[in-house]
Amino acid sequence: MAGGHGTRFWPRSRRRIPKQLLSITGKHTLLQETVRRLLPLFSWRRVLIVTNREHAPEVRRQLPRLPADHILIEPAGRNTAPCIALAAEWVALRAPAALMVVVPADHMIKDVQRFRRTVTSACRLAAAKDCLVTLGVQPTRPETGYGYIERGDAIRGGAASPAHAASWVRRFHEKPSARVAARYLSSRRYLWNSGMFVWKTNVFQEALKLCLPHVHRALAGVWRSDRAVAGRLRRIYAKLPSTSVDVGVMQPITAMHAPAPRLAVVPADFDWNDVGSWIALPEICGCDATGNATVGKLLSIDAHDSIVYAPERLVALVGVGDVIVVDSADALLICARDRAQDVRKVTHLLKERGWHRYL
Amino acid sequence: MAGGHGTRFWPRSRRRIPKQLLSITGKHTLLQETVRRLLPLFSWRRVLIVTNREHAPEVRRQLPRLPADHILIEPAGRNTAPCIALAAEWVALRAPAALMVVVPADHMIKDVQRFRRTVTSACRLAAAKDCLVTLGVQPTRPETGYGYIERGDAIRGGAASPAHAASWVRRFHEKPSARVAARYLSSRRYLWNSGMFVWKTNVFQEALKLCLPHVHRALAGVWRSDRAVAGRLRRIYAKLPSTSVDVGVMQPITAMHAPAPRLAVVPADFDWNDVGSWIALPEICGCDATGNATVGKLLSIDAHDSIVYAPERLVALVGVGDVIVVDSADALLICARDRAQDVRKVTHLLKERGWHRYL
Question: Nearest C-alpha of chain B: how many angstroms from A342?
Fold first, then answer.
């Protein structure tokens, strides 16, 4: 899934280059990292990218080995449920019961070996039990910005290793309050919802038919004819609701009884960062002794707890703390650390003022 | 006087382009503005610039109409007393009693008409009374960063207009405490020391001979022979103390009795800014309703009381206040507003780290 716009990463992310097409710390972009992370598990011929018209050329440029017709273009953003449903239709046409590993293209995972082992466990479980599998990340702090997965009964015989001891999911919980998040953290029954899923295509489609029948119906057979698929998709998407797969499928499925497919969770034992805003930088690249996280060259005089992203320019901080500084060729962001979520407001304001060259 | 280094204006000021050779708000540099301010009072043939070897080519570039030999090069910086003494020697060789108007090249004065009228008054006074004349700026706030001039008896018949009612100077006072500065402000007997002077060359040389005889002796006749003056100056300057004309000449002269030349002050009724640090920007270019002073394009979301100098790049401030942001091609400064004086530490640290390209 590589269709996001990532306005919280302005001024590095722009209309044409959203977060997933940027490299944050390394030489590869988040999209490239995402594919590289999975590739030893299957070949390029099994990689499928869903994006939009605007970003498709850059996706193609960044993934030259991807078969040309493995980029699906959504005519509009409708959140993850339609996106995954569209991909499932494409896969089903070729192999109706093929395993799908569904991942966002803008997450950062450093421990690649553990990631691959977890995905392999999840694949085994999805194949053996005909269930939907979500990857749940062990919480390390009482985060209020994520959804949580509540574990229910353990699944016997489903795990490749004790680290990946799978459970049935009792419930999905939306972003909690700080008090509730603290309780989740201490109970150890709750995992972060990573937004990564594994299932057999037909099992997902069955769940979709039950939970979002109109989405399933609208997209059914859309890839059968090659003629004018773009125009058809445009008309279909115009009427589709914007729905996440979490809220639209995962939450309701946990409340259903057989013969609905069940939802399982495999605990992820790798580091995971959804790179939701510039606040993620210290987790990704670490901090110096005074709490400054830097990509680029920093000269600090009594600066502390700041986040500096300026690969192409020297930054000198004098006597400031808790600020986010992000440099780019034509624009510069300086943001209070506790206002990282408001960076998206910058892009709204740019539109309002008609300063489109900075969008 | 155009020899300063202005490390407090980093990253705009650099080793090769110090403050006086920069344009801060307009299309002209501070040096060019300084000359343009004075020019209607006399011709290019009466302009003399003292600078150093490093900056001389840029001075020449910025003032193409200046006669080639009207740039005096000091081999080292020794503060204002040797600088003025060197220029006085040069003038004395051509016209021993010529009036000198001595001004720093890095001050900002917007009300050019009043400036010219004040200088004209000071020239009349210096010519009529054979005294040293300093321009004293009427304080508008209890500033602790300036020296103060305490006025004594009024000078009868010395002023061209009541606005320029001159006085003899009772005393020079160094930078005061906040409490003392408040007292100075309310008493109205004190004026800011602007560092601008007017006198007949021979009168200044007489004062120099009395107050800094070694400086006078060292430089006496230095311009008589053209042969190897650079080498001679280097040897002389190596032994000269670093002394300001304020501390070295003006302060002691007020304590002397006849036949020493007396020191007078003409009150300046124009706006005046010594552009001592980035803090000067709001005074020069004004503020918006939330207290932000900007040169360039600013997008503010709940930002306040900040100073932004970024003529070539858009700056977005989100939720920050009281910061100074200065952009340049290869380096960026973000400084707490109350730490503006510490910007010079950046250049020290750059030297220490060997990052010479940013100096």
Answer: 7
